[in-house]
Protein 1
Amino acid sequence: MSTIASISTAPGIGGIGIIRMSGEKCFEILRKIFYPKNPYKIEEIKGYNIKYGYIKENEKIIDEVLVSFFKAPHSYTAENMCEINSHGGIVVMREILDICLKNGAELAQPGEFTKRAFLNGRMDLSQAEAVIDIINAKSNREAKEGIKQLEGFLTQEINKIKQKILDIMTNIEVSIDYPEYDVEEMQENEIKDKLTNIKEELEKLEKSFDNGKIIKEGIKTAIIGRPNAGKSSLLNAILKEDRAIVTEYEGTTRDTIEEFVNINGIPLKLIDTAGIRNTENAVEKIGIEKSKKIAKEADLSLVIIDGSKPLEKEDIEILKIVNPNKTIIILNKIDLGLIIKDENEELKDFKNKVEISALNKEGINELYNKITQMFNLNQINLDNEIIITNERHKNIIKKAINNVEKAIDSLNNNMSVDIVAISIKEVLSNLGEITGDEAGEEIINEIFARFCLGK
Ligand code: GDP
């Protein structure tokens, strides 16, 4: 395979920058551009070694660097690799990259290092996907799930199920090859039991995606309330406590700002925070129609009410449009004394209520606990349970479940074993799409295109 190079650290200024190279000619190129302080023969350098020296071009020093050597197959890509640690200036990094390219390397595509790791058999497709998840993680839970997947937990689970299917196949193939020994009643029941067990395991995985989705995408949360109820104060209190990640989509209006905050390790995706910040026009901005739309879109509505005053018409309208099961009523301004109480008639349908002072940041932890309780997040056993966080995996598992059901149906309808075998083989091929041995080139390219440069 060709030799690829790219800058692997984030674009911009940093303490150090890393230029990565991988492929057959990696060391040959290094020999031309890297001048170790203590001369070494590159062939003699062992893998996992770091050497200090200079990158030079036409005998001119470009930068003082440290170069890490990795020898095939013991590297990220399973090829000969090096990482040039330079000073973290964008000009220097570009210059070093250019020198690598001039000497025979090609510019790496996004994700190409990881793609090579996959193509060279160092990781399967689900592990490569975990790498993207770890890089993009917005909460520690999401990162932990990514690490688990990278460690191969999902692969092991899929392989366990594959093995069970292979066992059934062996059973069935005996009867296809020797039709005179028809599948006996007993054997048929046994196959059915095994298939049912496989179906249950797949369903458990499929179901775990509900939690996986929350872990990955965050709980879509809306803060709703009439003007002056305390929306922006609450937003500030939340943002102040937890380091928020603000994502703003390019080319759209400020309306689409989404802010992520970590609540007990789970990201909340706060929607329409731009509307809240824009308090001058709050009345027009967050009209009842708009609130309705936001509430509908949200997994969780935080309805904030100024509890120091009687409910107003607008409060009551808001209470009518939200779904009580997906809502937490926040009685704000406890510091002023609450006159609205829990047992208030208008609030009777809502079981989730907290009392806070957004201004003094009191009661915020109670609010967080309520959120974690509502989504059962404490019950996700991070260490032992396998959680699917990837929609692609979930869709494949769904297909696999369908095929297992088809196989069971065929058995129930006394179809010939060959027909049963077709469905069972489909399940195997479905599962192969997760690990990558059965994934088409198009899918593979699409997955790696989502990576960043240099990974
Ligand atoms: P919004 O219009 O819903 O965004 O409400 P704001 O957050 O702008 O709050 C409206 C007013 O209520 C401001 O003057 C806040 O300082 C005040 N306020 C908000 N929360 C509290 C609270 O817990 N206690 C008190 N005393 N005042 C609050």
Protein 2
Amino acid sequence: MRLVLLGAPGAGKGTQAVFLKERHNLAHISTGDIFRENLKNSTPLGLEAKKYMDAGQLVPDEIVMKMVGEKLAEFSPDDGFMLDGFPRTVAQAEFLEGKTKLDGVVLFKVNDEAIVKRLTSRAVCKDCGNVTNIHEHDKCPSCGGELYRRDDDNEETIRKRLKVFHEQTEELIEFYRARNLLLEVEAEGTPEEIFSRVAGMLKS
Ligand code: ADP
Ligand code: ZN
């Protein structure tokens, strides 16, 4: 199975990807994670991407498409995967269409104010990547690791990311609806509740 996870920043795509990976044995391809990994290793790609990420803007299409193209080339035709954070523009979606056939696009629906609240309190584990809440934990509840806040999780940048989502990514909803691929999920509630909705949709 090949899926795209679509939704605003902070809609919970990464959290649901962890469940989907377990249940359906799908590889998780997160463009944001790939950029952050590159940045950690100070690669030219990472340093270039950082300029845009810190400003809450999209990394230019050519850079992202090249990176994703290389990533997809690692998979055999029968391998399943889910793309998290890609595509984010119509140009990226058209590029993807030329590379692979999708089985579905899961749209995570959350209102903007809920997102600002989520992201301003989001903390990520340095060791296992687990996402948690700074008001509830001071260490990772799953592995005891140290928690950190992403540079782009401050209110000003969050609002810019949301604006970019509405201006450049939201039109993908129509793009995929027109192709009969869209699976819409109400994404407020606990991660488990949301996953049971996702699992139900994928079954039918
Ligand atoms: P979020 O969905 O929480 O905004 P991500 O981790 O998916 O965060 O992405 C972080 C940043 O990486 C984005 O704000 C953007 O700058 C860059 N990025 C990730 N994926 C893409 C993409 N497909 N196209 C352009 N930029 C991207
Ligand atoms: Zn951890």
